[in-house]
Amino acid sequence: MLVSFDSLPLKWQEAIVAIWGEAPKVTIQKTIERFFERDMAAFDFYTRFKFDDQTSLERAKIDEYTINASVLNAIEKTYKDRYKMRKELRGKVNDIWQTLADDSNWFREQTGHTLPENERRLREKYNDYKKNGYKCLIHKGYRKTNALKVDDRHIELLNYMFAGIDHKPTYAEVAQTYDGFVSGYVEVINEETGEIYDPKEFSRLSVATVWNHLSKWENKIGTFLARSGDRQKYMALFKPYHRLLQPKFASSIISIDDRQPVFEYLPGTRMWFYNGIDLGSEAFTCWVWGKDKAGIITEFYRQMVRNYAQWNLPLPAELEGELNLNASFKDTFLKEGNMFQYVRIEANNARGKRIEQYYRPLRYQYEKKREGWLARPFAISEANQARTDKKTLIPYDEIVQGCLHDIQTWNNTEHSKIKGMSRWDVFLAMQNPNLRPINYHGILPYLGMKESSSVNAGIMNFRRSKFLLGLDGVICTGDKLINMMMQVEGRDVDIYWLDDNFGEVLKAHIYIGDQFICEAIEQPGYNRARIEQTKEDMINRELMSKYTNTIDSFGRRQKSGLEKITMIDNRPVTINNNFQIPGLNNYVPSTEPAKVLANVDGDEPMMVNTEQLTGGEKSFNKSLITNW
After folding, report:
1. Whether 251 contacts 432, CB under 8 Å
2. For the chain, what is the largest distance between any 2 Cα atoms, rounded to a whole number of angstroms?
3. In CA terms, which of 216, 422, 567, 594 is 20 to 30 Å from 50?
4. What's the rounded Cα separation, in Å, for the pair 83 and 95?
5. Measured between alpha carbons, how far is residue 612 from residues 352, 580, 620 in Å?
6. How far apart are the first and last CA of the chain?
7. Residue 598 CA to chain centroid, in angstroms?
8. Buried b vs exposed e over 575-613: b needs ≥16 C-beta within 10 Å?
9. What whole-number distance in Å separates Cα of residue 309 and Cα of residue 313?
């Protein structure tokens, strides 16, 4: 029905414009333009598309293929709209595709699409699109190159020649060798497969071509690793590194490594330090030194325990270090969960040890100012290059004092990020709240010194003192003490212990074989004179009384539980009765009551009826009075 637009009510006109647009513009707009809409799904597809070699489409191609897909979508909608309209008007439909081709060609100026101009080819492209989707719009010739003169087999042989022989040839030498191979003068054999390479299968290559392909990243990364023994340089050139952020708390992780202060105490001889730095606070928390680095590693870990125990702090949660000196400890105290919750030990990975970055300021900001400092032979900075004067030997003890002074100064300087606080203040104030107490059970069996002793009356002689049985740093009483006494009393035991920074016993554990029993805690003492006893003396006296009373009370309980019994032993004593004494077995005890003998006064003999006692035989014993 034909209706005059102007005759409609205003609100109807506004509704028509809102839905279909302004009539003058719509009447001159082609149908395909009204149906055109950018296909974002096509854009996503072409953006993420990868060829077999994992390369992507260029941005211009992504836009081109997205527009082509969008136009084909508009063509589909236009076709359906025209087909429906012509059917309703009983018009012919066999020329619709020609009209669509005309509209598409007209629309090329508005969109810049690259779809075929010919009606037949446009229809084929549309059918292919409907069947195979977005991928079919990628031109088949795109990324297709002519057969390369240097294919994979050529590159493989060049890499073998460059890295597969004993000596390390240059690019030019490889090019000369390859040219000799192609010419038939050099024979190449694959040692793994036994294959003899045929020169007829390979093309001649220039020196520039050989260099160009061997210097490509995909070839160089493998040949460099095979040829070079410098792992650090390989990692710097080819291996990506992680971006690790500095911890926010102290004792979250400690980084450890050895170093040689740049001073000589003998010609050509430098001492060794082994240090540990807390990465959160940037403070050095452990340091040991010696003339041989292999001899100080065990003492380093002992010193770490001493330091943190003296500061009343738990050990760091994580350790990072190098494999060289720590390899033998990986299955003992450096096993995760023993001394540290987490352990990361890597071989030949300077990046894996953050402490390496802190050694540079020690070297150039502190040590450089002292006499006898040795520069690197080929330092890049002129200020760090060696002077022309002779080397100065520094006494060993003076080097130690200087290095310890540097550590002290470093810890008292301002933190790099937390302004107004020294590194040491940050270490003490910002301890990680999730740390666990020092796990002596995972440390002492491997790091502790070992001594043997015995337990007698609940007391052990150890290091010229007396020690009692305890647990978790407390002397035991009650049932705990009794249970321990049942295991160790009167037995020889092994004591694994560690001393503190003042030579006293820091922690001592009692073992029988491989079994942990309890701790050894020094026996408390108190003043004998009551007038001089302090509050601490009274506490020690009470604790010792409880310890003694526990054992004493247990003894009384054991005694009270005993009851009297009668035992009749019928076990034979002899094996037979072949020997007999005459008359002995005929003796019958008298049933008369015993006689009371009178007191013997003077020299009157005491008469005894020996016949009655011996059954009629005389006694050979003299009387008492006679003997007297």
Report:
1. yes
2. 177
3. 216
4. 10
5. 107, 21, 14
6. 169
7. 100
8. eeeeeeeeeeeeeeeeeeeeeeeeeeeeeeeeeeeeeee
9. 6
Q: Give the Cα separation of 50 and 83 in Å (integer).
A: 38
Task: List pLDDT tens digits, range 180-231.
Answer: 888 887 788 777 777 787 888 787 777 777 777 666 665 566 555 555 555 5
Q: Look at residues 255, 431, 427 and name the one whose alpha carbon lies nearest to residue 358.
A: 255
Q: What is the pLDDT of residue 524?
A: 92
Query: Rounded to an integer, what distance in angstroms lies between the CA atom of residue 535 and that of residue 445?
Result: 36
Range with the poorest average pLDDT among 3-12, 452-461, 494-503: 3-12
Percent of the chain with pLDDT over 70: 81
> Helix 152-163 to helix 171-182 angle, to the nearest 10 degrees?
120
Cα–Cα distance for residue pair 93/446, rounded to 1 Å: 93
Distance, CA of 208 to CA of 172 (rounded, Å): 9
Matching residue, tokens 């010193």: 303
The token duo for 432 is: 């990680």
Query: Which whole-number Å values give the CA distances from 15 to 22, 28, 29, 274, 580, in the listed order?
Result: 11, 20, 20, 84, 146
Residue 221: other Cβ atoms inside 10 A: 13
Quick check: 481 and 469 in contact, CB under 8 A? yes
C-alpha dihedral, 422 to 426 to 429 to 435, nearest 10°: -150
User: From CA 528, how far away is CA 541, in angstroms rounded?
Assistant: 10
Secondary element (H or E) of residue 308: helix 297-310
**Whole-number CA gyration radius for the chain:** 50
pLDDT at 222: 54
Residue with the bigger pLDDT between 351 and 46: it is 46
Query: 282 near 358, Cβ under 8 Å?
Result: yes
Instruction: Choose among 478, 465, 480: nearest CA to 521.
Output: 465
Average pLDDT, the chain: 82
DSSP for residue 505: E
Beta pairing, strands 342-346 & 505-512: unpaired
CA distance linking residue 424 with residue 412, whole number of Å: 6
Model confidence at 251, pLDDT cuts 50, 70, 90, reads: very high
The helix or strand, by DSSP H or E, that contains position 548, with its residue range, turns out to be: helix 535-560
All structural domains of the chain: 5-137 (no CATH), 152-238 (no CATH), 254-429 (3.30.420.10), 448-540 (no CATH)
Q: What are the phi and psi torsion angles at 557 (to 5°)?
A: -65, -40
User: Rounded CA gap, 332 and 334, in Å?
Assistant: 6
Task: Give the pairing of strands 254-259 and 318-322.
Answer: parallel
Q: Six-digit token pair at 221? A: 């990364």
pLDDT level of residue 241 (50, 70, 90 thresholds)? low
Give the Cα separation of 28 and 458 in Å (integer). 110
Give the residue from 110, 19, 120 showing the smallest Cα distance to 70. 110
pLDDT digits (tens, 9 = 90+) for 460-515: 999 989 999 999 989 999 999 999 999 999 999 999 999 999 999 999 999 999 89
Give yes or no for a contact between 71 and 113, defined as CB atoms under 8 angstroms apart: yes
**Cα dihedral angle (29, 32, 33, 38), rounded to 10 degrees?**
170
Top-confidence residue, 336 or 94: 336
pLDDT band at residue 405 under the 50/70/90 scheme:
very high
Collapsing DSSP to helix, strand or coil, 517 comes out as strand
CA distances 211 to 152, 162, 203, 206, Å, are: 15, 11, 15, 9
**pTM for the predicted model, two decimal places:** 0.60
**Each residue of 547-577: pLDDT tens digit?**
999 999 988 888 888 888 888 888 888 888 8
